[in-house]
Amino acid sequence: QVQVVESGGGLAQPGGSLTLSCVVSGNRFSFSAASMYWARQAPGKRREMVAYITDSYDKWYTDSVKDRFNISRDNPKKTSYLQLSGLKPEDTAVYSCRLGPDHWGQGTQVTVSS
Fold first, then answer.
1. How confident is the model at residue 1 (pLDDT cuts 50, 70, 90)?
2. How far is CA 26 from the centre of its chain?
3. Pairing status of strand 48-53 against strand 103-104
4. What are phi and psi for residue 33, nearest 5 degrees?
5. Any idea what DSSP says for residue 78?
6. For a Cys staple, 78 with which of 31, 92, 99, 107, CB 3.0–4.6 Å?
7. Could you tell me which of 41, 50, 29 has the C-alpha nearest to residue 110?
8. Radius of gyration of the chain, Cα coordinates, nearest whole angstrom
9. pLDDT-derived band of residue 28, with 50, 70 and 90 as boundaries?
């Protein structure tokens, strides 16, 4: 069974920063061989993919977060990180991470407000 747990959300001021973590545990999977994805869902909106990082460390970002967010991974720790900077009120959402195609975490709330 695979468990995916996000943390690091909270309240930030516009222009501020947060670092989200996603820790994966369990058996029968290879963290280092899997792509890691971060998505977000704002109230009343569909979930949107924000960023992903492949097993070979290729990265992709949606246009609205390019140059502000940074995704990374630490394979020995089975952890993915999403560094959020230059935060805007429209970044307010529940941020979730996904291991490979199937395993989602419960998410962590990010609220950007003055």
1. confident
2. 19
3. unpaired
4. -90, -5
5. T
6. 31
7. 41
8. 13
9. confident
DSSP 48-73: EEEEEE-TT--EEE-GGGTTTEEEEE
Under a CB-based contact definition with an 8 Å cutoff, are residues 52 and 71 in contact? yes
Side chain identity at residue 112, one-letter code: V
Write phi, then psi, for 75 (nearest 5 degrees).
-60, -45
Q: Report the helix count and the strand count for the chain, using DSSP H and E.
A: 0, 11
Residues 30-55 have pLDDT tens digits of 999 999 999 999 999 999 999 999 99
Phi, psi of 12, deg, nearest 5: -135, 150
Q: Pairing between strand 59-61 and 48-53?
A: antiparallel
Q: Up-side HSE of residue 5: CA atoms within 13 Å toward CB? A: 5
